[in-house]
Each structure stands twice: as structure tokens, then as C-alpha cells.
Hints:
Metallo-beta-lactamase, Chain A, six-stranded mixed beta sheet, globular
Amino acid sequence: MADFRLTKFGHACVRIEHRGVTVVVDPGGFTQREAVAGADVVLVTHEHADHYDADHLRASDAPIHTVEAVAAVIREQAPDLADRVVVVEPGQRLDVGLPVTVVGERHAVIHEDLPRVDNSGYLLDLDGTTVFHPGDALTVPEERVDVLLAPVSAPWLKVGEAVDFVRAVAAPRTVAIHDRVYSEVGLAMVEGHLTRLALGEGRTFTRLADGDDLA
């Protein structure tokens, strides 16, 4: 596995450091401000407040790569950040100091009466080791995934859907994200189901505390 550092911050945010480049994904309202310190680039999957927080983005001078729907929110609500925004599109391959592929374009369904916002996940290539952050979606990348950052609790997610997503991606390592919605009891139940039902031989599932690194 490539030599990189992956740190889990609050809820859906992760910080990835590799070859002198620091990428932060989804520093939202449940995330500690320290997550963005020294970031070289910030990736935002969609506009919901648990993934996008303008004050966190102001705490860094890094460029912000995100979908047009988030860029529109920034132009309207945080125009001081607008000149740092780079709009991405599904399927696009980026060079942010590390190769990144933009995956998917819609948020998972919360309820049929609610509009679906745009959402794109990010597949990072760390010298051949791939790390996938899906945002709020269960889109399976076409490319191989070595480390899957899997949502484990959400208003839009059933545990059976989480199991099927982890099975379909079939990453050797799965790390829990989007974990602030459930209690510790609920998260332990999800971990039990995923461990029993979704992991094949040699595959692992990890829940990290805020601020902990993937070993």
C-alpha cells in the first residue's frame, strides 16, 4: 500500500496527506476546524451543511473543487470564496497535486417528495492505491477501490444498502464515515452487520475516532 496518511475528522470529513500534498474532503458543520489547517486543496461533494461549511473554507486559502450546485451556493452566500472555486463534472479526471477522478452526480434519495441535490464523489490515486469518498451517494466507481470511505448512518441510508454498497465496491479496506447521526449503540450494530455480511476473506472494516489515523 502506498505511503500516505488518512485522518478521520468529524462526520464525513477526511484529510489525506501524500507526497507533500494535503487534500481535505467535506469539512462540514460537524467537522473540527483543524481539519483544513495547511490544506493544499479542499474537495466538497455537495451542498448539505454536514459536508459544506463556509467558515471552514475561510480558515484555509486552498482552492475548492466542487460541483456547480455548490459553486452556486458559494457565489450567493459566500462570495468572498468564489474566486477559489474550481467547478468539476462527473467523470472528470483532475490533477490537484494527486490524481482525482470525479464519480457520480446525484445525492441518494432521502424521500421521493424531496428534491435530489447534485453530489459527486472523489476517487484519489495515491501512487496506485485508490481511496474513494462517495459523499452522500452509493455510486460504485468503475475503477478498483483499495480504501472505501463508507457512509454508515444517514436519513437516506438503510443498513442493508450499506452492506450492499460495501459488497459491490469490494475494497480490501473499508473505513466508516458519515457517522454522527447514530448513537454508539447504533454504530456498533451497523459494524456488526457489515462485518458479518459485507466482508470477504482478507477484507477489513474500521471505525476511527475523530482525529485518528488509519493505521
